[in-house]
Structures are given as structure tokens and as C-alpha cells.
């Protein structure tokens, strides 16, 4: 449905996605990826990596090693909140506007998500 | 008109179980009975989501990336409308890397070549191949070059970059045979050619410095006079990128200016030898603007020495559509097609666009 230049569309059902999962969908003709974090939240992003256009939905939802001041220290955080590209492995922070962990000035374009009944509704 | 594309680095991959058919005994039994496989030491398997492969390149039936022609055709060759692709193997096995048992290495090279020809080169007219040899035994290597080098779809001889320096006169019979059969030399790094033959603590260190191992081989080939001795021979440096080349050219020229006396068989400036004999594949591309890109080209003094490559199916794959900045013609066509076409004399002429239908059959 297009309203005043915006596109709003039910892209999947809530139960289509388990917490920690993702799936590809389309918004209009635009390929998107819908992610569900472990706390149940839904997020939607472009399904093309901003680097070379890889299909993000072929990557993985995972966590990441937290920045640390101690060389050699690994602390795995943000489980279910990081979307990694299937090619070069770039890490995008799902709950932080899709920002890249290595360069927060760059981010995967995101879309608004609302839950309406059983529907996951994405709009831009 | 569709754009033409030659991909100078595609990694097909053999499973040892598929290689057995092409081996004689006792070599076959060493694999079936004794479970021989080439020792590999890389301590990291984690660089990207699916190890060293693109996560979406695993064959749908579960086999590893690069093992299935039909899937490669769908995901790479058809999707990007390749004109030609040059197969470079997966370096497992890598006969020229074996520290000993050269008889087994020679048998593996022959088996690999037969497997490659039957299952890839003769199944898709776009694909061209690399002759695998056991270079530690140059006479055996020459016999293998004589055996499969005349195949119309073999375009180069593959040498791994590890701890051998291939410019040494000991290996020159290989280059004589290559020149005789219109085969070029392709070099691709294998297990740790950097950090004094050992692994650094982190993958990111190793991967950052792979170009240093390529620099070692280029300078070794130049200073050992390979290109003076074999004037028709050319060398493709595969998967080291090209941004190190301006530095290397300048450094070699300065050294040659002062130290020529030590290598009197080198009669041209090293940078000129590089421009006339050495080519460099683009991947892995650093992200850069057109302005940045053109500065590198300017410093190399030639638009003719870099050739596009994807590195499919590996994790740091470069997309033909997205990896390079918009360069405009004719430079774009040089990098994506003309330079590689000029490099490999056995590639056929292409009439029309990028697909395989216009290419001459083999």
C-alpha cells in the first residue's frame, strides 16, 4: 500500500520468524531482510550489503566480540543483534540503526517496522 | 552490447574422493587405505560467516563451495555473463607446495589436471584452466606440461606462493616448456608465504600482508632474469591486488640503478620488465574512489597491467558490478577484458557481447 509517497506493507507473519532469526522479503519491489532479535523485536533492512551488494539474508544473525582495551580479550556480546554479510563478513548492529561495528558512520539502510495483529508491517 | 568480462581467478575445488578415479596405484591406495591428505596448517577458519567461502556459495546439496559446475554456472558465470573464466584451483592439493614425496605430488598434479579437463574445461566453453605441476621436480613438471599443456583450454601453469622462490634457475626448465606451449605463469599464494613461513597470531595480519609475498616473487623473477631469458613469458600475480605495485616498481628501479652489477643479466629497468611481462589481478579490491584508482594506474605508468578477478567462491569475492569505481571507457574494458585477453594468447576471439554463445568452441 502506498500512502503519500510512503510504502507500507505486511511482509510476513510474526510466527514466521523465531527470535534470533531472519528472512528475506520484499517491500514493493525492494529486497529487504527482516530480523528478529532475542528479545522479540523486529527490524527490517535493505537486503543488499552497502559494500558490494551481497544478499544479507544469506549471512547470519549472531553476536560480536565487544571492543576492549585489553589485547587478547574476547567478550562475546549482542547475541542475536548482529547481522553479518555472507561475503566479507561485515557486522551490522541490528538494534543500533544497522550501523557497522567497524565504522559506525556507515549503516545498512533500515525501515520502520510495526506489529499489527499477527502481521509484521514494514514501511518507508 | 553486453559488456565483456574475463574473470582471472575462479577457484574450482576437488574433493579427494573425486580425485581417486584419476589416480593410479599406489597413489590411489594411499588415499583410500591410508587416508592421505595434504597437510594444511592454517589456524584460522573464521574470517567470515562461512569460513573462507562466501556463505551463499555452498552447494545446495551441502557440498563445499566451488565443487559443482552447475551451481557455479548459475551463481557466477551466467549471473555475471562471463565471457571467460580462468580456473586456479583451491590449492588442496597443491603439489608444488609439498615438502617431499615429489612422486606423490607429481601423481596428484596429473590427476588434478585430468579431473579439471574432464569436469570443467570440457563442460563449459567459458572456462579455461591452469596446469598443475610438482615444480620441485622440474623434469617431472616439464613432462606434465608436455602432456596437458597442448590442451586448447590450458592457458597457464600454476605455481603456489609459499616458501619456494620460483625465479631460481633450477626452475627455468618449467618456463622454457611454458614458453614452448604458449602457456603463461600464474602465481597464487598458498599457506603461509608471509611472516617468515609461519602464521602470525591473527588472520587479519596474514591477510593484510599477503601482497608482501607477491612482491617477493615478482622481484625474484625479475632479478633472476626469467623474463630476459624467456622473452615471450608472462606472469599473472593472482589475488594480491595491485596497490602494492607502484611501490614495488619504484623500489626495484632505485635498487637496480645502484646494484645492477650484481644482476648483469637484467638489461631493462625492473619497472619496464613489470609493465611488459607481469599482470596483477584486482581482487581483493580496497574500496576507493575513481580519483584514488586512477592515481594507482598513473603511478604504474600503464593501463594495461591489471586484470579483473572475482576470487569466487571465497569470502572476499569481488562483484564485477560493484567492486571497482565507475571508471569509464576504455579503461573499464581494458581491466575487465582486454588486458587478460592480451595476456593469454590461447583465449579465442570474442565476437559481440559477453555471453559464451559468441565465443568460438573448443
TrEMBL record, chain A:
Gene Ontology terms for molecular function: 2 iron, 2 sulfur cluster binding; metal ion binding; monooxygenase activity; oxidoreductase activity, acting on paired donors, with incorporation or reduction of molecular oxygen
Keywords: 2Fe-2S, Iron, Iron-sulfur, Metal-binding
InterPro entries to which the protein is assigned, alphabetical: Rieske_2Fe-2S, Rieske_2Fe-2S_sf
Annotated PROSITE patterns: RIESKE
Domain of life: Bacteria
Coiled-coil zones: none
Transmembrane segments: none
Residue ranges annotated for the Rieske domain, each copy included: 9-122
Protein known as: Rieske (2Fe-2S) protein
Organism: Paludifilum halophilum
Amino acid at each position: 500500500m502506498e500512502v503519500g509517497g510512503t510504502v507500507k506493507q505486511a511482509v510476513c507473519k510474526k510466527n514466521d520468524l523465531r527470535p534470533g532469526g531472519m528472512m528475506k522479503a520484499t517491500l514493493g519491489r525492494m529486497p529487504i531482510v527482516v530480523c528478529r532479535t532475542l528479545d522479540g523485536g523486529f527490524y527490517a533492512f535493505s537486503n543488499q550489503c552497502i559494500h558490494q551488494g551481497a544478499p544479507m539474508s544469506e549471512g547470519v544473525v549472531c553476536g560480536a566480540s565487544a571492543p576492549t582495551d585489553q589485547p587478547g580479550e574476547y567478550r562475546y556480546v549482542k547475541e542475536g543483534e548482529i547481522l553479518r554479510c555472507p561475503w566479507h563478513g561485515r557486522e551490522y548492529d541490528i538494534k543500533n540503526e544497522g550501523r557497522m561495528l567497524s565504522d559506525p558512520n556507515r549503516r545498512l539502510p533500515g525501515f520502520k517496522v510495526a506489529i499489527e495483529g499477527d502481521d509484521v508491517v514494514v514501511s518507508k | 552490447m553486453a559488456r565483456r568480462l574475463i574473470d582471472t581467478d575462479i577457484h574450482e575445488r576437488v574433493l579427494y574422493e573425486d580425485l581417486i578415479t584419476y589416480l593410479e596405484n599406489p597413489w590411489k591406495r594411499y588415499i583410500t587405505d591410508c587416508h592421505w591428505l595434504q597437510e594444511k596448517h592454517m589456524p584460522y577458519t573464521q574470517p567470515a560467516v562461512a569460513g573462507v567461502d562466501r556463505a551463499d556459495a555452498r552447494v545446495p546439496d551441502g557440498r563445499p563451495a566451488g565443487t559443482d559446475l552447475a551451481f557455479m554456472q548459475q551463481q557466477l558465470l551466467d549471473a555475471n555473463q562471463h565471457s571467460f573464466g580462468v580456473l586456479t584451483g583451491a590449492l588442496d592439493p597443491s603439489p608444488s607446495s609439498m615438502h617431499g614425496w615429489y612422486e606423490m605430488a607429481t601423481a596428484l598434479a596429473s590427476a588434478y589436471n585430468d579431473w579439471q579437463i574432464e569436469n570443467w574445461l570440457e563442460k563449459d566453453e567459458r572456462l579455461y584452466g591452469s596446469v598443475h605441476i610438482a615444480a620441485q621436480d622440474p623434469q617431472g613438471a616439464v613432462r606434465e606440461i608436455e602432456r596437458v599443456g597442448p590442451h586448447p583450454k590450458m592457458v597457464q601453469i600454476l605455481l603456489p606462493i609459499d616458501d619456494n622462490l620460483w625465479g631460481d634457475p633450477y626452475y627455468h626448465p618449467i618456463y622454457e616448456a611454458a614458453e614452448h606451449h604458449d602457456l603463461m605463469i600464474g602465481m597464487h599464494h598458498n599457506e603461509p608465504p608471509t611472516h617468515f613461513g609461519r602464521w602470525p597470531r591473527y588472520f587479519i595480519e596474514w591477510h593484510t600482508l599477503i601482497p608482501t609475498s607477491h612482491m617477493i616473487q615478482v622481484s625474484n623473477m625479475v632479478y633472476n632474469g626469467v623474463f630476459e631469458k624467456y622473452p615471450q613469458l608472462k606472469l599473472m600475480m593472482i589475488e594480491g591486488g595491485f596497490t602494492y605495485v607502484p611501490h614495488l616498481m619504484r623500489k626495484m628501479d632505485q635498487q637496480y640503478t645502484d646494484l645492477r652489477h650484481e644482476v648483469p643479466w637484467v638489461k631493462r629497468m625492473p619497472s619496464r620488465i613489470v609493465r611488459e611481462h607481469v599482470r596483477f589481478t584486482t581482487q581483493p579490491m580496497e574500496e576507493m574512489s575513481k580519483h584514488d584508482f586512477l592515481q594507482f594506474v598513473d603511478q604504474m605508468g600503464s593501463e594495461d597491467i591489471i586484470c579483473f578477478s572475482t576470487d569466487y567462491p571465497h569470502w572476499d569475492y569481488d562483484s564485477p558490478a560493484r567492486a571497482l569505481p565507475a571508471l569509464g571507457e576504455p579503461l573499464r574494458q581494458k581491466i575487465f577484458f582486454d588486458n587478460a585477453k592480451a595476456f593469454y594468447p590461447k583465449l579465442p576471439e570474442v565476437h559481440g557481447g559477453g555471453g559464451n554463445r559468441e565465443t568460438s568452441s573448443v
